[in-house]
Design goal:
426 residues; alpha/beta; Rossmann fold; Dihydrodipicolinate Reductase, domain 2; Alpha-Beta Plaits; 3 domains; five-stranded parallel β-sheet; 15 helices; elongated; binds L-homoserine
Length: 426
């Protein structure tokens, strides 16, 4: 039977879940996978945390050097998160020939190139299933299940915190601030929620996933990013009345015009399968040229779901003697020949606060007409004395075209404010 010794760097929520799965299921893995996995080291500053998990003192390492020089450690699991000290630790582990399994999306999205180069030098494995969409086996699906396809698009709810917030705003009418507070109380959102609510976390994941999907390096700088902090609950409610659900989507498309990668709040039709992905759940919808549509759904975070992804990498690493690296040129700044779509097209939901008097609608639609921007739907939704609120839904149009039109609208004395502009995706 194959044997592998594992070291876990960091015993937070995910490290604890990983330890639990590895220890409680040791016999099960021997029987079902033919591998005997033992935890040989943990590296954690808070030793009480290690003791609370039932870890023996002899297993607790005092430094990364101790882990790297332990001949019984074959696989190092990094679940510290962030850039440092994770980067230094992972680099040291790879340099000493250990295979690395990481859940660290920020580290991976920013330093995949250098880490892979180190792994290659030592013929070590570098696995990152848990870095994207937690327990959902999306990386393995892309690397080992969909190779027969050219992947045309990837569209997903890849951040659980923002999905929880948007669900709460949609179903309970909470404001953004109220929903964020509740997400923090439940432990979904961090005390500093910026990485999630401003879309950075989703950007890291989309850069990794679209690189694998489209077989070309997509750097985070290539991903357009917009978070959910400016979302008004009114727009979620109006969208709902019109048959749309608001989600923070990561969207990647490989088109004839180039690659399009973006993270932003998006209205999707209520009938879209992603619309029923609620609370902190994640889901990814893929289109392959042979298989057609595929959707993967599950928990994107948490001790056991993320631990499940990590242990699946550990088992894979323990069972294979040769490792595989990116199929594309893994350059730090991407490849010059990859073309990106800068002015992507989308449908738009635009809510305006305007003067409630004769001729205003005609003036506004005149601006749209002059800009060559085609309107699909107009409705008046609310207002107070002398003010009306108008929602305009456009047909497909270019981003640049929309920005110019909004500037022209702002310049009209009859337009008091542009209350909301949200992209729509069919
Ligand atoms: N903070 C992430 C989320 C979890 O809310 O989805 C791990 O990436």
């Amino acid at each position: 039977m194959k044997k592998a010794g594992v070291a876990i760097l960091g015993l937070g929520v995910v490290g604890g879940g990983t330890y639990q799965i590895l220890t409680e299921k040791r016999e099960y893995f021997k029987k079902t996978q033919g591998v005997d996995l033992t935890v040989e080291n943990v590296l954690e500053k808070n030793v009480d945390r290690a003791f609370s998990l039932g870890i023996d003192r002899s297993v607790i390492a005092s430094s990364i050097e101790e882990v790297c020089s332990n001949p019984n450690v074959d696989i190092v699991v990094e679940v510290i998160g962030g850039i440092e000290p994770a980067k230094t630790f992972v680099t040291k582990a790879l340099k000493s020939g250990k295979t690395v399994v990481t859940s660290n999306k920020e580290l991976f999205a920013k330093h995949w190139t250098e880490l892979e180069a180190e792994a290659k030098k030592m013929h070590a494995g570098l696995f990152f299933e848990a870095s994207c969409v937690g327990g959902v086996p999306i990386i393995r699906a892309l690397q080992e299940g969909m190779q027969a396809n050219k992947i045309l698009s990837i569209k997903g709810i890849i951040n659980g915190t923002t999905n929880y917030i948007l669900t709460k705003m949609a179903y309970e009418g909470s404001s953004y601030e109220e929903a964020l507070k509740e997400a923090q109380r439940l432990g979904y959102a961090e005390f500093n929620p910026t990485a999630d609510v401003e879309g950075f976390d989703a950007t890291y994941k989309l850069s990794i996933l679209s690189s694998l999907a489209f077989n070309k390096k997509i750097c985070i700088e290539n991903v357009y990013r917009e978070g959910i902090t400016g979302i008004d609950k009114e727009d979620i409610a109006y969208g709902k009345e019109m048959g749309y659900t608001l989600k923070l989507l990561g969207i990647g498309k490989d088109t004839e015009n180039g690659v399009e990668v973006r993270v932003h709040p998006t209205f999707i039709k209520n009938s879209d399968p992603l619309a029923s992905v609620n609370d902190s759940f994640n889901a990814v919808h893929l289109v392959g040229d042979a298989v057609g549509e595929i959707m993967l759904y599950g928990r994107g975070a948490g001790a056991l779901p993320t631990g499940s992804a990590i242990v699946s990498d550990v088992i894979f690493a323990a069972k294979h003697d040769r490792y595989f690296y990116a199929n594309f040129e893994n350059n730090k700044k991407g490849n010059k020949e990859t073309k990106f779509v800068s002015d992507f097209t989308s449908k738009y939901y635009i809510r305006l606060s305007v003067a409630d008097k004769a001729g205003v609608l005609a003036k506004i639609s005149g601006v749209f007409a002059k800009s060559g921007l085609s309107i699909n739907e107009v409705r008046q939704v609310a207002g107070f004395e002398g003010e009306a609120q108008i929602i305009i839904v456009t047909h497909l149009c270019g981003e640049g075209q929309v920005k110019k039109t909004l500037e022209k609208l702002k310049a009209l004395p009859e337009v008091f404010a542009i209350k909301g502009t949200i992209r729509m995706e069919d």
